[in-house]
Amino acid sequence: MEFMGDGTTLLETGRFVHEHAVTAVAAVGVADATAVDAVDPIESLTPVEPLPVTDAEAETEARHRRAAEAGDVASMSVLGAMLLRRGDLDGAEPHLRAATAEGDRAAANNLGVLLHQRGYADEAAGWWRIAAVAGSAAAAHALGRHFRERGDEPAAEYWLRQSAEQGHALGAYALADLLEHRSEPGAERWLRAAAEQGHREAAYRLARALERQSPGGSAQESRGSTAAADAHTGAGAGAVEDENASEGAVAGGRVVAAGAVVPAPRAAGGPSAAAASAVTDRPTADTAPGASEHPGEAEQWYRQAAARGHRRAALHLGGILERRGELKEAARWYLTSAKEGEARAACALGFLLKDAGDEESAAVWWLRAAQDGDGNAANALGALHAARGEQQSAERWYRAAMDAGDVNGAYNLGLLCAAQGRTGQAEQWYRRAAYAGHREAANALAVLLLQAGDPVGAEPWFSKAAEAGSVDAAFNLGILYAGRDEDRTALRWYERAAAAGHTEAALQVGMACLRDGDEQAAERHLRCAAGGGSAEAAFRLATLLDARQPPPRAPALGEPLSEKTECEEWYERAAEQGHRRAQVRIGMLAAARGDVTEAVRWYREAAEAGSRNGAFNLGLLLAREGNEREAALWWGRAARAGHGRAALRLALLAARRGELAEGQRWCARAVELGPAEVADRAAALREALHQELTA
């Protein structure tokens, strides 16, 4: 509760007499008069509980009581205000009435407060009007609120403006609230005026207004997958196999694998387990604030409000600091807000603690927030239990989130059921979330329908999710249309997903540009996809750059090894992610520049991963180094995987050893596998071996 007033008296109104109270104020002391005078109506329109009296207050009260009994008007007013503040309405009323009768405007204002608390609103308004006409800003504010409660907004605006223009913080705030409610200009000006006088709610709302002036958005990144199959080559038996020309050739240039449809995005801060895609939005405020044109000013007002105990301001301030990377201070403000009962701050604090590796403490704060009705915290708890394999507990918390109105709860229940093979229940939960507007649930439902063989039913859900902003759904629509050979429509959706940062969609767009001969656009999209972590895109980009440079040459005697080119760096990035064709190609480049050790390493990695070209090239390198025994082992693996030139190599090796029957067998295999040049050489060798055997 707050006391306001200056100890001055009412101006003459016909009933009240203008009197000066300077002498009386001096008698009770200036400090007392300014500390206890008029109860501010905004704090006093509802009854208050009696407050305990300290020794100092008791002494002050006794001094004012003696002065009031001696007829001092100012002391009557101050004593009435003190008793009113304490909740002693019966004790306060006679003193306030006596002071009011003597023309004290502060007493008239406080008498209005007292009568309002007793339920006599109209009589209270009469006293507030008298005090307001006499210049009381607090009474004008109370009168303005009185009229607004009764729906008389013009009268409310008049009196609130009178209060605000006198510098009354509460009047300025109430006027700003009224103007904002009516969508009229000037609200920000009066919020600022109130905030500058220390009004914490005004400071908070001013910060919110500044922050909302330039809302931002975010795109969610998702992942797809690509796969490639081995194919045959057409080079001679002694040539080094280039994976770029064979393995992974894709019909029509598309890289579409069975697992390319992405059912849902990764969790935002949530654990990954059976419900790895569980969605738990990371809260920092009522709505996710975006970049503001006045970020520093908004933060300044949040700080002012938070320092005065405004828990939502502390929450928003924590969010600003967290986005800026100042996690320690962000956690401090989240903690302050959470201790004041702000569930969203408790939830946000839980996410910070989880990021720091303290899941147990995170769970404590999530539990506290969830018990206070925060659906997002309940989702986080559900994801945490799912990660630990505690499916029943996870389901219970997801249901709690749904009951709290968080649609993510239904979506996460769908994910949980799908992970357990309960497809029918998963579809029900996805539908519930999708009908509520959850775009990723719509995407997941479409994937489920597609997997069940219902592409017609899946398409409208993909479209709905994509139109609502789901990047995964846009990518999946591209796959759906590509499967129907509607390449133009597919490309449109791929481009939309790629523009939102979808890695695999960027790869598809890049490959479409390559098919159309637009290498510049292809390079741009492939760089985006490769930078996003796509091994296939890194390989394709490296291949594009490789085709622009002259073939590598072996260094001359004594010449240092040349540095790696950019295309080799991209090959290496793809190779390090397990891309077999990139591993073979980088092995070829290393061998060409004379780095045999590096070449052997990459050929071996590719061969051990199942690359027949890698096995063949490794055999060639080992044979050149004199290790024909191990070379034969790798050629054998390549030949059994369908590599014709490896079979021809084994036939030649067997012929040199005098193993004519074995040589004939490998010749027959080489003829069968091809390609044509290899088949011709193998047939000629088989005939020679046959003649030697029958000679």
From TrEMBL:
<protein>
    <submittedName>
        <fullName>TPR repeat</fullName>
    </submittedName>
</protein>
<dbReference type="InterPro" id="IPR006597">
    <property type="entry name" value="Sel1-like"/>
</dbReference>
<dbReference type="InterPro" id="IPR050767">
    <property type="entry name" value="Sel1_AlgK"/>
</dbReference>
<feature type="region of interest" description="Disordered">
    <location>
        <begin position="266"/>
        <end position="299"/>
    </location>
</feature>
<feature type="compositionally biased region" description="Low complexity">
    <location>
        <begin position="224"/>
        <end position="234"/>
    </location>
</feature>
<dbReference type="InterPro" id="IPR019734">
    <property type="entry name" value="TPR_rpt"/>
</dbReference>
<feature type="region of interest" description="Disordered">
    <location>
        <begin position="211"/>
        <end position="245"/>
    </location>
</feature>
<feature type="compositionally biased region" description="Low complexity">
    <location>
        <begin position="266"/>
        <end position="279"/>
    </location>
</feature>
<dbReference type="InterPro" id="IPR011990">
    <property type="entry name" value="TPR-like_helical_dom_sf"/>
</dbReference>
